[in-house]
Amino acid sequence: MRAELKREARVRRHKRVRRRVSGTAARPRLVVYRSNRHIYAQLVDDDGATTLAAASDVSGEAGGDKSARAKRVGQAIAEKAKGLGVGRAVFDRGGRLYHGRVKAVAEGAREGGLQI
Q1: Which of 33, 65, 83, 92 has its CA 20 to 30 A from that of 9?
Q2: Residue 22 is inside which H or E element, if any?
Q3: How many Å apart are CA 35 and CA 10, to the nearest integer?
């Protein structure tokens, strides 16, 4: 499958997910973006159109495999959410399947105390 077609299919799936998933200040949307090398997570308030917190494995410690780094990103975003007084979030997988690194971010956030 060509790369353009794979990207278009993922964007189509993401649009379908975004029809149902929306974040508020009390319960923001936990957005996960996965590239080939890194993983990024954000807490987004869609009502106010603001990013409340963000975390990634780019500037952090580089030890472990990609899944272990993704779990640490989830724990880091949960800590930042606690600092903001947010205890619950809506998970947005970004059109990706819920497995591997995307799942590891969600598990790390849950371990950090964020209710998804």
Answers
A1: 65
A2: none
A3: 13
